């Protein structure tokens, strides 16, 4: 199975969010390659920091969009982001401390979560945003 490969099944059909998701998949793929290549821990951790920064920026962007339109499932969606924030922070800390299992656990978690979250939760949110924009456009005409 190919890990962290972007394809149309990951699209949420909002170009800006799709671009951010593609970047997340790409950086996560870099992290996966770094682990498989047994790169030095400092290189793995550098890519991990890059992924964490991009993920946090993306989550903040989505959360701003949801708050701006008073998205009804904001709390539920935000809790999913918070779960990732906590789990990845814990595993990243374990990896930085030399836990040899932590990097693979982190990648396995991210692989499943990223695919599932974009395919379900993010698509729901994007659909709401697109429909809200359509209604706004119609009422403005």
Keywords:
single chain, 141 residues, mainly alpha, Four Helix Bundle (Hemerythrin (Met), subunit A), 0% strand
Summarize the structure.
The protein is mainly α. It is built from 4 helices and no strands.
Record the SSE blueprint.
Layout (H helix, E strand, L loop, with lengths): L14 H22 L4 H28 L5 H23 L5 H39 L1
Protein architecture, described:
The chain is elongated. 79% of the residues lie in helices and 0% in strands. The chain has one domain (12-140): Up-down Bundle (Four Helix Bundle (Hemerythrin (Met), subunit A)). The N and C termini lie far apart (48 Å). It has helices spanning 15-36, 41-68, 74-96, 102-140. Helix 1 (15-36) packs antiparallel against helix 2 and helix 2 (41-68) runs antiparallel to helix 3. The protein is mainly alpha-helical and 141 residues long. The mean pLDDT is 92. It contains four helices and no strands.
Structural class category: mainly alpha
Distance between the termini: 48 Å
Q: Looking at the chains present, what oligomeric state does this protein adopt? A: single chain
Total discrete domains: 1
Q: Which CATH architecture is right? A: Up-down Bundle
Content of β-strand: under 5%
């Amino acid at each position: 199975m190919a890990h962290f490969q972007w394809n149309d099944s990951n699209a949420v059909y909002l170009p800006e969010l799709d671009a951010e998701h593609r970047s997340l998949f790409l950086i996560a793929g870099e992290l996966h390659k770094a682990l498989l290549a047994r790169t030095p821990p400092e290189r793995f951790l550098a890519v991990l920091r890059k992924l964490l920064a991009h993920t946090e920026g993306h989550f903040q962007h989505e959360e701003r969009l949801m708050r701006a339109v008073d998205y009804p499932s904001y709390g539920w969606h935000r809790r999913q982001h918070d779960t990732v924030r906590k789990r990845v922070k814990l595993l990243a800390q374990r990896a930085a401390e030399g836990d040899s299992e932590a990097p693979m656990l982190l990648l396995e978690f991210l692989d499943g979560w990223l695919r599932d979250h974009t395919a379900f939760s993010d698509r729901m949110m994007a659909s709401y945003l697109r429909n809200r924009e359509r209604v706004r456009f119609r009422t403005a005409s």
